[in-house]
Design a protein that fits this description.
This protein has 425 residues and is α/β, with parallel strands linked by helices. It is built from 16 helices and 14 strands.
Length: 425
Amino acid sequence: MTESSRPTRVLVLNSGSSSVKYQLLDMADSSRLAVGLVERIGEETSRLVHTPLTGGPDGAGKRERTGRIADHTAALREVADELARDGLGLDSPELAAIGHRVVHGGLKFSEPTVVDDAVCAEIERLVPVAPLHNPANLTGIRTARELRPDLPQVAVFDTAFHTTMPEHAARYAIDIETADAHRIRRYGFHGTSHAYVSRRTAELLGKDPADVNVIVLHLGNGASASAVAGGRCVDTSMGLTPLEGLVMGTRSGDIDPAVTFHLERVAGMSTDEIDELLNKKSGLVGLCGDNDMREIRRRVDEGDPRAALAFDIYIHRLRKYIGAYTAVLGRVDAVAFTAGVGENAAAVREAAVAGLEALGLAVDAERNAVRSDEPRIVSPDSAGTVVAVVPTDEELEIAAQTFALVGGDRAGGENRARAGRADDA
């Protein structure tokens, strides 16, 4: 097979408990050929939205339909049918691999990995530390393997980028035998985003990632911060689960662990009730009833005290992490804001660095107000540390890691992947 005839397309799948998000990319030029979503799987109101991006303006050929889609197998068959209608089917010889987002890879998986039965078994073994995510991710993998057993399936792990954290950052200060027996440590999440954004920030500065120290702030409904030194994560805000760290849309972030004991003893709440409180009824929604930053800012501007308090708590936590990671890194070349809130909420960026001039941080009001899909610097030229907005692209990162692993050469790629797997922890 010649270089020019090797397959270059990668299908990226992000399987949730009741949804499948997907993108088909051509890694010859990193272009998107199709994007889509299947949601409410298993319900009578299942919905599929498919948008081909080949020819014509984006969204011109969008197709949408509702009606029961029984399970993930049926959902992926529907996705395959939609792609086939556009000449992009799963049976295409141009398809090099399918890349899967997997939330938790523990310590075993520090790199993207070609999936086989042993890999599936290990992902399943990690379900106790990722009960909401890994089962759904695994369902998507197994279904895709059934549909295309001959095609490399690559797992790209949210935790992988953070496996470079030193032990003093990854360990909790609890009995070490208990921690090891139950895999209790800080794993971190949003790793594909942090990897992509830290690298793109270095490019924005015109430097090699190995020469740049970056604080990445991934601010969406879920939010996390990372300290990246020379392209390697040395600390991150999320821990054993995505609950730790920053204030989020519905998650509390950092909290005294004794709060859980107190709620059990004084309020009579069960473990499940406390879990639901901290993960689904806390954060911004718990503080003011909204988890949409646009709505919160509207309420703040109208003088709503609860919205103002929620915003202030959110910003206070964010500034604490900027300060802490400045101390961890010693030298910070850039602070990069990304994800839905980070990319679009100018007020959040401004408030997050306000008062941190001693750390070299500031934003230029005019630059900060600009809306763009491109990476950009929003700090004044005189600032000691660059403040940047760097749109994340987790799907492109997954596709790039997948394609780099298989290299368009299915047999060779699979052999290289197996040779490169990390040892079990």
